Structure formats: structure tokens, C-alpha cells
TrEMBL record:
It comes from Runella slithyformis (strain ATCC 29530 / DSM 19594 / LMG 11500 / NCIMB 11436 / LSU 4). Gene3D superfamilies: Glucose Permease (Domain IIA). Residues 92-189 form the M23ase beta-sheet core domain. This is Peptidase M23. GO terms for molecular function: metalloendopeptidase activity. InterPro entries: Cell_wall_metabolism_enzyme, Dup_hybrid_motif, M23ase_b-sheet_dom.
Length: 226
């Protein structure tokens, strides 16, 4: 099972972002339905949403905000992109790292470009890269969403990526899907025949199925307390 395999290699992975988590200059951001602060933020306005996120980081003297795996969120109500079925999508399947636009993104281990796309709907991933990896003969995939447009330049399917190689930078709204600057980092064991995209949020009914396909990305990130 991929979860057990990743647990076997806790020191094997290169950093995905240039932060030393052991220094503690990060804060866990709560975007769950139980956070009353979100009721006072106009989430439809990306600038106001960004001011809220980075205001909290500044007040805490934090370089980055983190969190979100398996979080039941209310923030997706801002976008019709997550309301396209009878049951809205609300369970977050990756970890978000909220930091300044332009923050570099690195591959945690060697692999290949599986696919990439600009998912340009309001509230979507914006520029997205998906890498394919193999560890102890087991294949899995990593997804990087909300990137800069420049991150897609020069890519092609099958391009070899070395461990620790810079692959992208955080995008700015509206290019990044119209979100405050952050990286959505997600792992998948099966791409379900998709390319350049994969659900980063699922419905409550689909929660168990998608969590089995998308193991906790913190097994690679190694952020204390998540």
C-alpha cells in the first residue's frame, strides 16, 4: 500500500517548497465549516480573500500557511465549479501551502511529466502539473495546482524530472484559478484516465473512495503537527 511505502521513506524526499518546517514559522489555516471568521470574509473577491489569508500570516510572523487534507470546507461555495452535481464537493484531498506568489516549487523525487494543463475556471487549479513517480516499483502521481502561467512553459509529456528540480512557481490571482497565492499539493495512486487535472475536492459521499486514492501528502512534506 502506498501509505505504508511512503512511511518507510520519511527522509527520502526533497523539499517541495523552500521552507524549513522545523523552524516553526508556519501556521495551520482553518478553512473548515466550523471557522466563524470565514462568514465575515467576501470569498468571492479574491483580493479580499487574499488579504484575509496573508493578514493572518503577517500577524503570526509566519512565512506560510498550511493544512487542509481531508478538511470539510465551506470556501468552495464561492465557485460554481464545485457545485455542478446534486451534492456539492467540499472534502479537500490535498494539502495547501499558502505563501507569496513566485515561491518556487520542487519535485520531491525523480519522475516524469505525466500531464499538464491550464484549468482556467474560476476557483479551479489554474496552471497545473502532474508528475509520475515510481518508488520500490510502485507507481504514484503528484499534482501541483495554482501555479504561474510560466510554470507550463517548456513542458511535454514524458519529460524527465530530477529529484529536487524546480518545476514551477506559485501563481497570482486571477491566473492561478483566482485564489490567494498557494500551492495545492496532492498525491494519487490512480489517475482514473485523466490528464492535466484530477479532483482536488470530493463530495461527502465520495470521501472514503477518494481518500483511498489520495494518500496524505504530509507523508512527503513532513510538516510537524499535520
Amino acid at each position: 500500500m502506498i501509505t505504508e511505502l511512503l512511511k518507510k521513506h520519511p527522509l527520502f524526499f526533497a523539499p517541495v517548497v523552500p521552507f524549513n518546517w522545523s523552524e516553526g514559522r508556519f501556521m495551520v489555516l482553518d478553512f473548515s465549516e466550523t471557522n466563524p471568521e470565514l462568514e465575515r470574509v467576501n470569498l468571492q473577491d479574491s483580493r479580499l480573500f487574499s488579504d484575509y489569508v496573508f493578514g493572518k500570516l503577517h500577524a503570526a510572523d509566519a512565512l506560510a500557511g498550511v493544512g487542509g487534507y481531508n478538511e470539510h470546507r465551506s470556501i468552495y461555495r464561492r465557485s460554481a465549479h464545485f457545485q455542478q452535481t446534486d451534492e456539492p464537493r467540499c472534502i479537500h484531498l490535498g494539502i495547501d501551502i499558502w505563501a507569496a506568489a513566485g515561491t518556487p516549487v520542487f519535485s520531491p523525487l525523480e519522475g516524469y511529466v505525466h500531464s499538464f494543463a491550464n484549468n482556467a475556471n474560476f476557483g479551479d487549479y489554474g496552471p497545473t502539473i502532474i508528475l509520475e513517480h515510481q518508488l520500490d516499483e510502485q507507481r504514484f502521481y503528484s499534482l501541483y495546482g495554482h501555479l504561474s502561467a510560466e510554470s507550463l512553459h517548456g513542458l511535454y509529456e514524458g519529460k524527465f524530472i530530477t529529484k529536487g528540480e524546480q518545476i514551477a512557481t506559485f501563481g497570482q490571482f486571477p491566473i492561478n484559478g483566482d485564489w490567494p497565492p498557494h500551492l495545492h499539493f496532492q498525491l494519487m495512486t490512480d489517475m482514473l484516465d485523466l490528464k492535466g487535472d484530477f479532483p482536488g475536492v470530493c463530495t461527502l459521499r465520495e470521501r472514503e473512495r477518494f481518500l483511498s486514492l489520495c494518500p496524505n501528502p504530509n507523508l512527503i512534506l513532513g510538516i510537524p503537527g499535520l
